[in-house]
Amino acid sequence: MESKLYTFHFRTGEISVDHEKCVRCSNKACVKADSLFGTAVLRIQSGRPVLTTSADDAKRTCNECLTCELYCQSYGNRGLTIRLDMFGLEKYRASNTEEGAH
Amino acid sequence: MVRLIEHQGKELLRAAAVPTPMGEVVSTPKEAGQVAEKLGKPVAIKAQIATTGRFKAGGIGFADSPGEAAKIAGRILGSNVKGFLVRKILVEEKLSVEKEFYAGVIVDDSYKVKAPVLMFSTRGGVDIEQVAAEHPEEVRRTTVNVLDELSLSEVEELVRSLAVSSDLVDRVSRVAYGVYQVFRKYGARSVEVNPMAVTSQGMVYAADCRIVLDESSVSKHSELGIEYPREIGRPPTELEKIAWKIEENDFRGIGYFVQMTTQIKRGEGCIGFHGIGGGGAMIGADALVRCGLKLADYADTSGNPTASKVYRIVKLIFSQPNIDGYILMGPVIANQEQWHHAHALVRALREELADRPNFPVVILIAGNKERESIEILKQGLAGLPARIEVYGREYVYNVDYVAQRMKSLIDDYKGSELSRRGR
Fold first, then answer.
1. Pick from B321, B302, B408: which is nearest to B362 by CA?
2. Cα separation, B101 vs B207, whole angstroms
3. Which residues touch A68 (CB under 8 Å, ≥6 apart)?
């Protein structure tokens, strides 16, 4: 069964957290990274990362450092992902692929 | 900065009580003929594109009859003038001009002034810089204190200080005054009416205008419908439009991206260029060009942008087909937390380089949190199949070496690509 994701927005994207993975994570690298590089919008509650503040405040104060995802993927249990608004770039790349598109 | 098209500028001037020639914007030869008929006099037909030098480039014509207007409109519409496809033309009455003046407001950002300057000259129709150099006695200027309102009497005083006949002073001053009102209302970088035409009937018109707005003014004036507020002398590419969307409502640092060319052949040494720190980045760009490399784009992420903005700019750079390498050229001790760049690069390059064996990447990054940033990059990019070199502050004054490393990696890459493809 697909687990329900904990999601919240920042100004130009969205963060999704799979808490079922997080409870098995011994590192909580996302929160450590957010504390060092970000604006500490995350804290651990019952073994899971949650917002320290309201969703509206988090949207305003998150500095979009991207490190919660980066460090979760590198050192955590890969439960946190960031979706960034790309303002049409994916569509552009999809319609402009050729052998040298990259 | 964004330059308004002539008819947009004239609309703003009319709203500030500046007379402009009668006319309409149309998009077909038939409509052009109809407007000429309605005006009932000789007309000027002008391509509505955001560039100077339209007359010499064939973007402006004159007609004495509606039929001739339609014919000339047919020639201009759909043509390519200085890289712009002409979709609209302005058909307006041809003025019977006796004299040409100039009025303009610019921002003088020299440290002694830092304020708007209203300029007036009795020599219009030519570049004001040229007039100032060759006939300085025919140019007057006054610095405007932005905390006070500029008064009409101050403008009249400026106009009277030159050889303007007394019966024209009021009308000329009102045009110059309107120029300043537009400047102030729209947060412009410059507003110029050139020429300010005095007709044989003694009327004064803004015959042509050049209005440049600051990027930060654009979001405050959505009524202007500006899609791409940067003056690049040609229509924006799709990637440049996306770059502006990234920047449009996010003033956290700069994320600038403009394409130098879209005609890139694999193997010709055309690289994705990403600079930090305006002037320093340009010095780095020059060093790369001296090595025989070409720049596909000029990108800049300065002013402490978010990692998400830097990531998007890197993705834009890699969206250019056939680039032979990527360089982050930051030859400055940047006063921004460089680890945001480092994290953005790790995210973007992990995505972009996974299937680009031996792809050349050179990173020169210096400034706050530099040591940590280099460590983040080395750890985060380890294991990728590309050839990645990272340099720090020791190379800020040695951009030629960094550029040479880029060149060497590209030469190696070309060789490995050829053998990989079995050519």
1. B408
2. 10
3. A15, A30, A31, A33, A34, A38, A42, A49, A80, A82
**Closest CB to A66 among B264, B266, B307:** B307
Strands A6-10 and A13-17: antiparallel
Determine, for residues B343 and A13 on separate chains, whether the beta-carbon distance falls below 8 Å. Answer: no
Report the residue from B306, B309, B321 with minimal CB separation from A100.
B321
CB-based burial label for B249 (10 Å; 0-12, 13-18, 19+): exposed
The alpha helices in B16-137, defined as continuous H runs, are 29-39, 66-76, 128-134
Measured CA to CA, the distance from residue B53 to residue B57 in angstroms comes to 6
Check residue B423 and give its pLDDT: 56
Prediction ipTM score: 0.94
Q: Do A64 and B312 touch (CB under 8 A)?
A: no
Is B179 in contact with B18 (CB distance < 8 Å)? yes
Best residue of B240, B308, B341 to probe chain A, by most A CBs closer than 10 Å: B308
Question: What separation, in Å, do the N-terminal and C-terminal C-alpha atoms of chain A show?
Answer: 37
- Give pLDDT < 70 ranges for chain B: 418, 421-423
The predicted pLDDT at position A2 comes to 53
B143/B136 Cα distance (integer angstroms): 17
How close does chain A come to B239, measured CA to CA in Å? 8
Could you tell me if residue B281 is left (phi over 0), alpha (psi between -120 and 50 degrees) or otherwise beta? alpha
- Calculate the average pLDDT of chain A: 92
Tell me the C-alpha distance between A15 and A82, whole Å.
Answer: 5
Contact between B315 and A89 using a beta-carbon 8 Å cutoff: yes
B307 vs A contacts (CB less than 8 Å): 64-67
Cα distances (Å, whole numbers) of residue B267 to A29, B15, B321, B387: 42, 54, 12, 16
How far apart, in whole angstroms, are the C-alpha atoms of residue B312 and residue A93? 13
Task: Sort out which chain A residues have CB atoms less than 8 A from B306's CB and list them.
Answer: 63-65
Q: Is the dihedral of CA B311, B312, B314, B315 positive or negative?
A: positive
Strand partners, A45: A48
pLDDT at residue A102 in the model: 47
Query: B66-76 and B29-39 helices cross at what angle (nearest 10)?
Result: 140
Question: What confidence tens digit (pLDDT) does each residue in A61-91 have?
Answer: 999 999 999 999 999 999 999 999 999 999 9
